[in-house]
Amino acid sequence: MTYLDATCPLVSKVHLEAQRHSRAGREIILIGHAGHPEVIGTMGQLPEGSMTLIETVSDVDTFEPRDPENLAFVTQTTLSVDDTAEIIKALQAKFPSITTPRREDICYATTNRQEAVKVMGQRADLFLVIGAETSSNSKRLVEVAKREGAGRSELVASAENVNWDWFEGVETLGITAGASAPEDLVQGLIAACRARFDISVEEITTAEESVVFRLPKILKKDKVSA
Fold first, then answer.
1. Do 75 and 152 fall into the same domain?
2. Which of 38, 69, 154, 183 is catalytic?
3. What's the burial of 66, exposed, middle or buried (CB within 10 Å: 0-12/13-18/19+)?
């Protein structure tokens, strides 16, 4: 039987971090959202009771560890960068010796999109985020756009889900997509807007992404046989 591990390498990194902390005997905090598949998967890497979920700064205030000097934290990869920073700040203030990730756990694509939305949201009368209702990082983009001043911010699965009444009085539209949304959905939304309105498109770039994940050998074309 042939099997492939399709877990995002950045999520696998969090799993490995949690396992490393567990082997070192540390009590582990996971910053994330209850019920999210990634949170369920990460907590499932270790025996029940090994990890405590923290969702808000208020959770930090009420959390009482077994040993305050032997703590570590990891995070869900698709969180709001700003909200997570506040939780981490509260953890480090309450538990100064807490062990932190060697590298930031939040996905680089999530971080970059949030930074771009911060710039775009200030100018947008309406902001559309392409993504699924189950996508945590897409929902965070909607929240960031609202927080940065967008007149209205909505999550849509594709151009087919847009309510065109939202465009009443709109002069500047912001568009982005969740980290796993395909580019053709973005282009489809732009095409749908162009079919209805006289538009000009301006791309906002706040970071260049160069990370490449290698395909498993079995999936490389030169290894596939009929």
1. no
2. 38
3. exposed
In a domain, 218, yes or no: no
210 lies in some domain: no
List C-alpha distances in Å: 93 to 56, 61, 90, 107, 131. Answer: 15, 11, 5, 24, 35
100-155: pLDDT as tens digits: 998 888 888 889 999 999 999 999 999 999 999 988 899 999 999 999 999 999 99
> What is the percent of the chain where pLDDT is above 70?
97
The DSSP annotation for 163-211 comes to -GGGGTT---EEEEE-TTS-HHHHHHHHHHHHHHS--------S-----
| Nearest by Cα to 173 from 114, 127, 141 | 127
Task: Using a cut of 0.85, tell me whether the model's pTM lies above it.
Answer: no
Q: Which domain holds residue 74?
A: 9-94
Confidence band for 226, pLDDT divided at 50, 70 and 90: very low
Same domain, 75 and 124: no
- 157 pLDDT exceeds 70? yes
| Whether residue 154 lies in the annotated active site | no
> How many C-beta atoms lie closer than 10 Å to residue 207's C-beta?
12
Residue 99 contacts residue 160 (beta carbons within 8 Å)? no
